[in-house]
Every structure is written in C-alpha cells, then in structure tokens.
Amino acid sequence: MGLSLPSDPHEFKDSRKGETAYVIASGSSVDHVPRWFFADKLCVAVNFVGVRLQLPEFYTVTHYWTDANQIAAARPDLPVIAPMVDQGGPAAISTPPAAPNVYRFKTNAQAYSQFDCAELWPKEPHALIAGPTSLHMTMHFAAYLGARHIILVGADCGLLDGRANFDGYARGDNPMPVWAEHLPKVANQLRAEGVSVMSLNPFVNFALEGHRYDGPCTIN
Fold first, then answer.
1. DSSP code of 163?
2. Residue-wise pLDDT tens digits, 8-22
3. pLDDT in tens, 140-159
4. N or C: which end of the chain has fewer CB within 10 A?
5. Domain boundary assignment for the chain
6. Confidence band (pLDDT; 50, 70, 90) for 220?
7. Share of the chain above pLDDT 70, in %
8. 119 has a pLDDT exceeding 80
9. Pairing of strands 213-214, 159-160
10. Taking the domain 9-214, which CATH number applies?
11. Which among 48, 53, 46, 42 is positioned nearest to 67, based on CA atoms?
C-alpha cells in the first residue's frame, strides 16, 4: 500500500476516509493477537508500539518529541505524529528539531488528571486532542484520517495475567484509573461525530478463556 509522507500535515485529513483503523496500544492483550493479523490493516500505533511489534506499515502518534524522533529514525519511511508542544516537560527545551517524517499538530495543553474532554475538545479542524495518554491523541488522529470505524487493540487499562504491557514493551508510568476514566469520554466524543469506536477482544468471550484481568480499581 505504502503510506505517504506529505509536505503538509493537513494532507492527512480524510486521506483514509471510510476505512477501519486499528489503533494499537501496548496492553498485554496484544500478545494474544497474531502479528500477521495487522499485515493488511490500517494501523495507527501509540508511541513505540509499531516499532516494537515490527509492523510492516503504521502511523505513529506520540506526545513526546524525543520519542517521535527516535521512531522516525527507526522507520524513516513512515509518518510520525506529534504535538506542537512536547508533553514531556521541561526537557523538551533541549530537544532537537523534528525529523523530516515527523508532523506536528496543534493540541490543547496537557491536563493529566484534570483532563476535561468536552471542554478541551478542539474547535479547529486541524487540531488534535491531547489527553492523559498518547492513546487519546492516537484515536483522534485515526478519526482525522477519516476512519469510519476505530478498533482499539491493547487498550487494556489493567493487568492481564499480572502484566501491563505486551512482551518486549517497556512498562512506563501507567496511571490506569485516569486512563480508564477518560478513554470512554474520548470514544463517546468520536461516536458523536459519527465514528464507531470499539475494542478488539482476542478471546472468544469476556470470560477471557481462563486468563485473569485486574482492572484499575484492583491494582495497587
């Protein structure tokens, strides 16, 4: 298929109109999805997910300039989406200029646990939402591409068999109660705009075939 590297980030708008986008996060449920499943899918990956999974093609969305440049260097053939203002804090001052395949979008300022989806949802047509996790911005970018359906993968917001992330992905700061609270609000905003949002369960039903899931309320 080949993902384009446009000269203007606004060219991404509706460039995949009507398609189904698989928005892939780092939850350990990803280990139960065959890697080949993603080979022919429109994939929009959070942070280092696409690189760690070694997907053939994917868009990356991240809040962090340093991460964006590292991902862009690893896959110079693919687009990396980042905010105008690094959400990683003061260290961003010393961050080098963006790599050629990094595209920066306007966003709201990071609000972390004070995030209010309804209040902060951008009014500008070429701005993206910045939430407590890069996943929120990734979902919004999938809709910006014109996706009709968004399938979340690995947006676990909890521990599966005691693990937060899929094999090979480094665990970071995971404020899961905050994610679990705000993820549905972003999804509902997109649904109100006509985009269906749901999650991929790699098991046959919610019994999870004997696997144990601990949600944010039970995690110490």
1. B
2. 999 999 999 999 999
3. 999 999 999 999 999 999 99
4. C
5. 9-214
6. very low
7. 92
8. yes
9. antiparallel
10. 3.40.50
11. 48
Helices (H), 91-145: 117-120, 134-144
Distance (Å, whole) CA 104 – CA 86: 10
Going by DSSP bridges, is the β-strand pair 149-153/20-24 parallel, antiparallel, or unpaired?
parallel
- Render the burial of 30-40: b for 16+ CB within 10 Å, e for the rest: bbbbeeeebee
CA 18 vs. chain centroid, Å, equals 19
Q: What is the mean pLDDT of residues 52-71?
A: 95
Tokens of 186: 């972003």
Instruction: Label residue 95 exposed, middle or buried (CB < 10 Å: 0-12, 13-18, 19+).
Output: middle
Query: What pLDDT is recorded for position 111?
Result: 81
Q: pTM for this one?
A: 0.94
- Token reading at 81: 């989406």
Asked if residues 152 and 200 have their Cβ atoms less than 8 Å apart, the reply is yes
Q: Are 137 and 128 contacting, i.e. CB atoms less than 8 angstroms apart?
A: yes
Cα angle: 74, vertex 80, 85; to 5 degrees: 120
The one-character DSSP state at 55 is -
Instruction: Tell me the C-alpha distance between 21 and 18, whole Å.
Output: 9
Closest alpha carbon to 35 in 161, 168, 149: 168
State which amino acid sits at residue 199.
Answer: S
What is the spatial distance between Cα 129 and Cα 121, in angstroms, rounded to a whole number?
6
Average of per-residue pLDDT across 20-28: 97
- DSSP 3-state helix, strand, coil percentages of the chain (rounded to 5)? 30, 20, 50
Pairwise CA distance, residues 129 & 123, whole Å: 10
